[in-house]
Amino acid sequence: MAIKDLNLSAKATIDGFMNGINKSTIKGPGLEFSQYRSYQPGDDLRTLDWKMFARSDRYYIRESEVETNIAVRFLVDASASMNHSDGDFTKIEYARYLTACLAYLANLQGDAIGLYIFKNTELFAMVAKQDYQHLARLFFQLEQINPAGTFTKPIHYKEIFTGTQKRELLVFVTDLYQEQEEIFTLLDTLNTLRHEIVVFHVLSRNELDLDFKGYSTFEDLETGQIIQIDQAKARKDYKEKLTKYLEETRIKMLDRRIYYRTVATDEPLDQALRDFLKQRSKLRI
């Protein structure tokens, strides 16, 4: 994250992560040769290798590799609460970096990538395409995000229905800050489209531990409400309530068959990237 250029940052991270990891493939009638296997009744005769037959007097089928291409759409929460900071980084900076890395990885694997940005009364929509120029445009849009206001209201979700009719992998990066279950309303809307959904719940370390370096006055970034807190006295009760909240959230996601994972802003991305690859491999279109 010290590299401010998203393209370079994502490339450096993914190149390191992918070192030794092979591109996800399946066997099928593609262009790149994979292996031979013995002919079986019912096999397409066009895949017979006659040169192998001439050499061995046996029938062999040429199998090849086909990329498991899908459409991956990234959904980024750009409401004001994503401006919350811990040390040198805000939640939106971590979300921007995480999304850029996942998009770079998806593009590297030949997947079409798209983007939704949710902010106040706006919903920015970027169609899913598969080419490097499109990836560069996605990076540019991520770099322009300036969190403000509250989460986008359901009336603006109509753009979500304009995509492909095929099932897609939707990756939602958010701090799940909501007033009236509006984010779960969005997730329920997405579920009606029968998409595979992954939610990365971004939390800062100082809000996980209630450790704000001695501060006692706190302001809600979205409502402007100000409260006074004695951190030392409130910490135990706060952590108990936070644990309960996170468990309730996990169960809500499970009930909706949504893959859910919390990520702290001081956490390396390796496991989040592995989780993304795991979910991506489950979706076959």
Report on this model:
By secondary structure, the chain is of the alpha/beta class. It folds into two domains: 6-17 and 68-282, von Willebrand factor, type A domain (Rossmann fold, 3-Layer(aba) Sandwich), CATH 3.40.50; 25-67, no CATH class. It is 36% helix and 25% strand. The protein has a six-stranded mixed sheet with strand order 8-7-4-9-10-13, sandwiched between helices. A three-stranded antiparallel sheet has the order 1-3-2. A two-stranded antiparallel sheet has the order 5-6. α1 (6-17) crosses α3 and α3 packs antiparallel against α4 (132-143). The longest helix is centred in the C-terminal third of the chain and has 25 residues, at 231-255. The chain starts with 5 loop residues before the first helix and ends with a helix. Residues 22-33 have low confidence and may be disordered. Residues 35-243 form the DUF58 domain. Pfam families: DUF58 (PF01882). InterPro entries: DUF58 (IPR002881), vWFA_dom_sf (IPR036465). It comes from Pedobacter frigiditerrae. This is DUF58 domain-containing protein.
Number of domains: 2
Helical proportion?
25-40%
Largest sheet: 6 strands, mixed
Q: Could you name the CATH homologous superfamily of the largest domain?
A: von Willebrand factor, type A domain
Instruction: Report the top-level CATH class of the largest domain.
Output: Alpha Beta
Regions with pLDDT < 50 over 5+ consecutive residues?
22-33
Please write the string of helix (H) and strand (E) elements.
Answer: HEEHEEEEHEEHEHEHEEHEH
Structural class: alpha/beta
Summed over residues and divided by their number, the pLDDT gives a mean of 81
Organism: Pedobacter frigiditerrae
Protein name: DUF58 domain-containing protein
Domain DUF58: 35-243
